Amino acid sequence: QQQVKQSPQSLIVQKGGISIINCAYENTAFDYFPWYQQFPGKGPALLIAIRPDVSEKKEGRFTISFNKSAKQFSLHIMDSQPGDSATYFCAASMRPGNEKLTFGTGTRLTIIP
Amino acid sequence: DGGITQSPKYLFRKEGQNVTLSCEQNLNHDAMYWYRQDPGQGLRLIYYSQIVNDFQKGDIAEGYSVSREKKESFPLTVTSAQKNPTAFYLCASTLRERELETQYFGPGTRLLVL
Question: What is the rounded average pLDDT of the residues B66-93?
Fold first, then answer.
């Protein structure tokens, strides 16, 4: 049973545009929602994370929007750059004491000139 | 220079052979994890350990085994019972006490079957 659904599977965005990746979850016990960025042949690295007590979190060009009632969250990359080309994973876990992350299936983002 | 190291970077397995993937961390993290990554399937949890000498099965533990004899080390053995072992294996660790816990990943080991 996949508990975190991620879309789209792949995304092509022009340089300077906005990249949007969406995730939906089923388990209402999830309480922590990170996004990871992975470059080819490397391990994922934490990009930004949010808890459901806020609806939005922004760090530089990266923003997470969170809709608790809809059980959805999304990553927005503003002014997308070629260096942002990577695979992005959303994930979810429960409160401290149960740090297992459940990952989405990933989105391969390509930024074209 | 703190971090997670995985070795080897590439590993080849013959039919019927057990192979062991190494994972070491010097971050003083309590919990460690092993994930398997296949194209289009994201990361799937194999095993995890929250303290030394204790570990739990993840979602796809069949055909794998682990040990946690030291806090800094969490090796994964891919046994001959794992019929489709070709994948990218990622080790991660996290500090339990932090309010906003972060899983730190190693660089991965790519396992190929000969």
Answer: 95
